[in-house]
Fold this sequence. Notes:
single chain, mainly alpha, two-stranded antiparallel sheet, 6 helices, 2 strands
Amino acid sequence: MFKLLLFLNYNAFAPVNKSVTIPGSEPINPFHNLIHAIGIVETNLDTLAYNPLEEATGYFQIRPIRLADYNKRTGNSYKLRDMYNYSIAEKIFLYYASLTGPYDFETIARSWNGSGEMTTEYWKKVQQHL
């Protein structure tokens, strides 16, 4: 009987393993689908797109006035040529999208496009790709 009790007590202890494994996870990106849809509508996902009429540049078609506003608000000094860099352009888009919040895609898309009635048509185009 003594041997049996000793065996049970030995197995009752947790194994000596002082490491903890935390599985990695993907970050949450609530704007992912909207970014993709806007990219399709604006440039058909072309990071090198340029519209000489509006001087709109890159994937998000960022205009000089938007860039100047962003630089003033954030203290950055990006140039229009920097908008060909997707990461920088996305950072600017996300700045403005975050002012509205992640769950009002219509307001984000319409304000990204400008103001007025034309933004209603723009939103309809974006919706087709969400």
